[in-house]
Write a structure and sequence with these properties.
- Helices cover 57% and strands 0% of the residues.
- Helix 1 packs antiparallel against helix 2 (34-51), helix 1 crosses helix 5 (127-148) and helix 4 runs antiparallel to helix 5.
- It has 222 residues and is an all-alpha fold.
- The protein has one domain.
- The chain has helices spanning 18-29, 34-51, 59-72, 111-121, 127-148, 154-164, 180-209, 213-221.
Length: 222
């Protein structure tokens, strides 16, 4: 049974931070107000620290984080950067600490999801944190359905968020996440597209790999 559809997702620009951080940066790009984008960027940088912790937190480390943020946004995030950022290839990424898989509460979310939520839980309560939480909650709902292949209620996602953050974070009252049926439809469509692409590639490879007839005839003449 296939449990993931990464072949149909956008490419992870820096894998060490995971898809959740990339999604948060994509959300920041959708914010029109520059001051709000800048505030969100500081929250995301803090989350990036949670995902890739290090004991060497000097200026070079923070400068690297901001450059990574700029790179993941494909150099589109217009904010007030505390360091100079450059358009350059990112060849060096922060080294990840090794974690014991037994510490993960829910395997279908992965460790990075839990680290992102815990990072958000340390931030000041407000509209920015609320919106980032909703981005994460919808991502978690898709992950859950992708893994379990079943419909899930928003209340269960909320319970998982509360447990991961020791009750600090919870879904705002009255908020509805993306419909389970819409998520299932999207996943089925992605799977069908992936299978179709693989089938077309396989067919093309067979046709391209077949030996030309003149070569076969040449063998006979020998």
């Amino acid at each position: 049974m296939e449990r993931d559809y990464n072949t149909t997702r956008a490419k992870l620009l820096i894998r060490e931070y995971g898809r959740n951080v990339q999604n948060l940066i994509e959300y920041a790009l959708s914010i029109e107000d520059k001051d709000k984008r800048t505030k969100l960027a500081y929250i995301i940088i803090s989350v990036m620290q949670q995902v890739n912790p290090t004991s060497d937190t000097n200026d070079e480390y923070y400068k690297k984080l901001w450059n990574h943020l700029y790179f993941i946004s494909e150099y589109k995030l217009d904010i007030d950067y505390p360091y100079e950022v450059n358009k350059e290839d990112i060849k060096e990424t922060p080294s990840s600490l090794s974690y014991n898989n037994n510490r993960i509460m829910y395997r279908f979310y992965g460790l990075n999801t839990e680290l992102v939520l815990k990072g958000l839980a340390t931030k000041e309560e407000g509209e920015e944190r609320k919106q980032l939480l909703l981005v994460m909650a919808n991502q978690m709902k898709e992950m859950y359905i992708n893994w379990n292949k079943s419909i899930v209620g928003d209340d269960l996602i909320d319970q998982h968020i509360q447990r991961i953050t020791d009750g600090v974070l919870s879904l705002p009252e009255g908020v509805e996440l993306t419909s389970s049926n819409l998520i299932l439809k999207k996943l089925h469509s992605n799977l069908a597209s992936t299978k179709s692409a693989h089938k077309a590639k396989k067919t093309f490879s067979k046709k391209g790999g077949s030996r030309p007839k003149f070569q076969k005839n040449a063998k006979k003449r020998r």
